[in-house]
Queue: 2 jobs
Job 1
Amino acid sequence: MNELLIEDVGHVRVLRMNRPEKRNALNNALTRGLVDALAAAEMDDAVHVVVLTGNGSAFCAGADITEFKDLTPDQMGRVEERAELTMQLHLSVSRMSKPVIAAVNGFAMGGGAGLAIACDLALAARSARFGYPEVKHGIVAAIVLPNLTRQIGRKAAFHMVATGESVDAERAVEMGLANAVHDDDVLMDETMKLASHLAGVSRAAMATTKQTFHQVVDLPLARGLEIGREANKRMRSFVRTER
């Protein structure tokens, strides 16, 4: 069984995590597959938008803890490799010029919740839940923290990672973890509708919008305005170059 299924629908590339028996838990193979697939989508001119979802009843249960037995202090090479791979996955979306939409079709826990909110947009099924239960298992929700803190604020982020409590889809939207909630049976239809809309936008405008967004989001106001000024100047060439 392929750990990641890839399908092109027009200019939309759908990446479907395919470990339903493990609730799409992120083992090394799936994590590497996602990193490689996102890089391939970025390089493919026919792909304008990426959709990420999971097979089965869950989006992603987080890290596959069955691999933790190999991540011990005496195996520091493996520990470092896994940490680096996880970090690169969470960086991949922000480094792409193309929008990535998460269709959160069920539970998104730990690294799975981190993966969902790392996407540019997240649409959630009513059955979806978001949570960071790591502390309950004596481990730390570490790599997910930068995105989580940026998106929902310090107090809400600390509450989630310190208590391990999960939230439902409606609360996730209120907190800023997701953009919208849809009934489970129409989640993918609604996601593809949004993806198709974004795929029809000027590619130069979309790429510059995303690049500028990720550059300015954490900068002081003055520096953010300078970057916005430069993007504004580049924008004037879009219509001419895309004719």
Job 2
Amino acid sequence: MILTVTLNPAYDMTYRVQNFEPGRAHQVSAVEQRVGGAGINVTRILNQLGKYSRATGFADHQFAAAAERELPADFVHALPWVRRTVVVNECDDGTATSLSEPGARISGLDAVDQLLVRVTGLLGDSSAVVVSGSLPAGIRSSIPAELARLAGAAGIPVICDVQGRALELAAAVPGVVLMPDLDELERVIGTRPDTTAEIADAAGALVEDGADAVIVTRGAAGMVAATRAGAWSAALPTPCSGNPTGAGDAAAAAVISALAAPGQPDWPDILTDAVATSAAAVVMAVAGEIDLSVRQRLISDVLIEKVS
């Protein structure tokens, strides 16, 4: 089982419109609502890939019940309400505009302790862990790092796909795999790398400090991975257009699926799969879904290069 942790879940709302233009009224042609959040999207995609995954984290009673009706889930009921994310999807070209609410504040004094106990109990049946997404107000920034240390102590791989101060603290956990975008990497290292070599150097410095691997996502430009075995870049010759919401979650699902398997990781293959799986999410209208046929077709198109 691969365990995912979503600390700040959301109801994902997708509005489909024709000829979307900011500043004017639109008629919405279709509306979709589903339980979401970064870790939940990772669980959805893993289950699509045939990998059993269970989601945990914080929620309210209504959200937890809705999640449990759709997928394996075991949430701590600690939120007074769950936020929404709204994606306006242009029907003609598939592009999307996303609005994310900050979420509720967790006020329960024992909420974090409950989550740590819950995760500790689930680790015995887990082959890997993903901690991803933003943090709700009232939660200390060290929680993703604490969860990563629990996974490390259990001897299982862990991805931290988090932001801001939480990412800085997670980067100090030995053996962790980080998946920042360029903005998040800049926050950690203090400068913004531009070229592939500069990105690899910056990510490699975090590996030298103890991370097992750092995979930097670059949107349509692909990804750069620095690992203990070397550094690589990967990209599609022609990027897919569409809705990028959830593309990073798809990449995390591909990476953790490989790390949960026995044997040493083959990072060029992992990075290739991550780029193809991410692109297979971009072509979908809603986050947490991939087109399996697109993923399979694109794997052979990914350009992978070793970075010296």
